[in-house]
Amino acid sequence: MLRAVAKAASASTRRAAHASRATCPSDRLRALSTSADASTTATEGEGEGEGEGGPSAVNRKLTESARAVRKQSSAAIGQRRDTWGWLYDLTDSGETAERWVNGANARLSDRVKTAMYLMHKEDPETWTMSALATKYKIREQRVGAIVALKRSEERFVENNETLYHDLETLMEQSYGTVDVGTGERHVTDVPTTPMFQTVSEYERGRAARPKKFVEASELARKEEKVLVREFFERLRYNTLETGTNLNRVSRRASAPRRPEGGYALHVTPLGDTPLEPYIANKDGTQRALNDDEREYVRRRTPKPRRRIL
User: Known PANTHER family for this protein (predicted)?
Assistant: First the structure.
């Protein structure tokens, strides 16, 4: 008798599984949710007094489980911070993981940002990016980004587009603001190791000529010049100041149609020749590169340099 009941139960289970496969995914999810609610209600106790519109036992259980996981994760993070890891501060600010002084540079108030933009707009020769960076004790890249964003905001105001000032005010109230930075700058480290060399009797008495050593501050200054130049090149390209007419579509689904007669070719003369790169048209004529084409060639040309961290 028990064997017959088990066979009947397995057959009904197979029919239910076949029926669930025939339904759509949303129906399956709805059925699973309903069965989970029913099983949880049956196992966790009856007569809890919940109404139809109140939270189900499953939702309450999931919420409590998620809260417990968050507490365990927070405790584990605190233990890891106390037991392992290190912070190497290259600045003179005495920063730690809990005392991040230079984080204030990213919290300049909107009033200060607007003043920076107006100063640069009214007198760009006096208030250059470098001058504003010195005045507000931040890096030139941050000044350039602020000015570009304020210029974009001004265009939005002229076009009567929606600006979410309430959200901006809420963010400033939540994280706080400052009127001047902490003097952020690019820093680098020059690791040094002892270097020993075996010399002969003849070389021992000669004057040593050690390799020129570059101080960390000098190396940081040279790297900062490269970083500033590359940042503003990319900023001008991203804000359509350069390469305005270039096609910026990437990952094409299909190749563009070939024009009648073929493409024009970009020719770069090689060797010792005074000729500049030019465009050879399909009709045999030549012309010089325009600004967009020069920008495209510049961006496509590899610029090998030392990696800057």
Answer: MUCIN-LIKE PROTEIN, SMALL RIBOSOMAL SUBUNIT PROTEIN MS75
Which of 175, 210, 241 finishes a domain? 175
**Per-residue model confidence as pLDDT tens digits over 245-262:** 988 877 777 777 888 888
Domain count, the chain: 2
Range of the domain at 114: 101-175
Is 142 contained in some domain? yes
Q: Do residues 147 and 116 make contact, with C-beta atoms less than 8 angstroms apart? A: yes
In a domain, 159, yes or no: yes
Per-residue HEC secondary structure of 199-217 comes to: CCHHHHCCCCCCCCCCCHH
Quick one: which of 108, 209, 203 has its CA closest to 149?
A: 108
Give the strand pairing for 265-267 and 278-280. Answer: antiparallel
Helix then strand count (H, E) for the chain reads 10, 3
What would the pLDDT profile of 176-230 be if each residue is shown by its tens digit? 999 999 988 898 888 777 777 777 766 665 665 666 778 888 999 999 999 999 9
